[in-house]
Amino acid sequence: MSFYNSYPRAAAPRRYAATPSGPRAMASKFAGRCVVCRASFPPGAAIVWERGVGSRHADATVCATFAAAPAPAPVVVDMKPIADFLTAAKDRGLKFPKARFLAPGNREMRLSVAGDKSRTPGAIQVVIAGEWVGRIAADGTVGGRLATETDLLATLTTIAANPAAAAKAYGALTCRCSFCDKALTDEGSVEVGYGPICAKQWGLPHTARGSKVLGAVAPVAAPVAAPTPAPAPAAPTVLAGDLGWEELLGLTA
Fold first, then answer.
1. How does pLDDT run across 155-200, given as a tens digit for each residue?
2. Within this chain, do residues 84 and 171 fall inside the same structural domain, yes or no?
3. Which residues contact 111 (CB under 8 A, 6 or more apart)?
4. Cβ contact 163:99 at 8 Å
5. Quick one: which of 99, 118, 116, 95 has its CA closest to 108?
6. What is the mean pLDDT of the chain?
7. Does residue 54 sit in the same domain as residue 86?
8. Is residue 201 classed as helix, strand or coil in its secondary structure?
9. pTM (2 decimals)?
10. Same domain, 138 and 178
């Protein structure tokens, strides 16, 4: 045994104090949601936090106020055309169908159908620029903050009316397929916004080299020659014999 190991080492001091158990009253550092009334609270709100339970309003009357408030009426939109569009691709063998369209501000809107093991099977999940914003249930009920985004709901209604036109707009701006997100290189794919393989999976038309539509070319008219200007009249010739002495000496006005 060495001399160093013969003496017991002192316990290292704690760098952090142990977190006391039980509820703690504090000011919230971040926005959150009360576990009692399910209402959201902003940063700096007085809350009571407890490990394993979550946060709740420090003032119980705040929870009572939210509980007494009437629930907002559910927002319902008709997204059945989009749901049918996505599920039809799934019936053709596409395991996880996804479609990308343009959201307001030219952001990417990704739509997908929730699976059978989801809490809301068959619902359309809506993701904007990588952030989940809500879902649309099979009966058309909108969940999440999507219910308050009127511009997004209007865009979804437009997409539902003509998904193929919405896919074409997405491909025209991004030059990527509206469904598989691969780059579009074929003329026909760039024209419609998706490739030939996705066209078969989604039941959409596709022409390999695009539609060559040329209009009639108007004949070029011959240039009109500019008119030749008439020559200026010649000045009359004046002989010295025809002038008087005053004119010869330049004395006339």
1. 988 888 888 899 999 998 999 999 999 999 888 898 889 999 999 8
2. yes
3. 82, 86, 98, 99, 100, 101, 124, 125, 126, 127, 159
4. yes
5. 99
6. 79
7. no
8. helix
9. 0.55
10. yes
